[in-house]
Amino acid sequence: MNILNDEDYKLLRKLVHFNQIQTKEFAVEFLGGFYTNVVETEDYVFAEGNIPIALVAHLDIYFEDDDIERDFIYRTFDGIMWNPHGAGFDDKAGVFSIFKILEQGYLPHVIFTTFEERGSWGAKRLVQDLPRHPFKDLKYLIGLDRANDYDCVFYGCENKEFISYVESFGFVEAYGTSSDINHICPVWGIAGANLSIGYRYQHSKNETLDINVMFDTISKVKEMLEDCSNIEEAFQYTI
User: Fold this and answer.
1) How far apart are CA 140 and CA 192, in angstroms?
2) Domains in the chain, ordered, with CATH?
3) What share of the chain is helix, strand, coil (3-state, %, to 5)?
4) 3-class DSSP assignment, residue 45
5) Per-block average pLDDT, block size 10, for the chain (239 residues)?
6) How is residue 59 annotated by DSSP?
7) How far is the C-alpha of 69 from the C-alpha of 46, rounded, in Å?
8) What's the CA gap between 80 and 35, in Å, rounded?
9) Which are the contacts of 230, defined by CB distance < 8 A and separation ≥ 6?
10) What is the C-alpha to C-alpha distance for residues 145 and 180, in angstroms, rounded to an integer?
């Protein structure tokens, strides 16, 4: 059982209350504490780390334009959070998880996008501006923007070696319609997986977040980052 400490609770609560603009400003400031060069545009943010894997999350939420009270109830006995007005854990849980990974000493490449919920506008602009990835080395991408518990989704990438590799960390292949990596990976020619981050019933007022699943995914991603030295070549995007 994972229980949020006071600092983590405050951080997640802050992210839930932020709109997209505020989240982007906060993310740029946060990344600045870890990376020497943070690139910010109107549509996306990225930073190059020393681990050649890119973590991806989006800054907007489905209810971005709604005048809702962004608060949540935290049930500590089973680690479930929700907000009767609509919480936006899709994808504030992904942003939070990347922050926690950085705080624990890992420096992967990081990509934050805007307007994923409006057609992945930020991701599309990223690959329009940068049809080749901006990093010195990149083995693969991890999206932290998937519902449920232990899904891994590949959106048309049929690299069997990569699928087996991701599943070896405790995920099970599932199928989804779209996410930011669905637009980034084919252009950059690099495989990517979207991983469950613990929210459910996204895009509805019944959305919940399972803290235990979120922290399990964080742990699995750290294992993947640590294993990166065993990957000799980048996983290619293949169809």
Assistant:
1) 5
2) 6-227 (3.40.630.10)
3) 35, 20, 40
4) strand
5) 87 92 97 97 98 98 68 87 88 98 98 96 98 97 97 96 98 95 98 98 93 97 97 95
6) S
7) 30
8) 32
9) none
10) 9
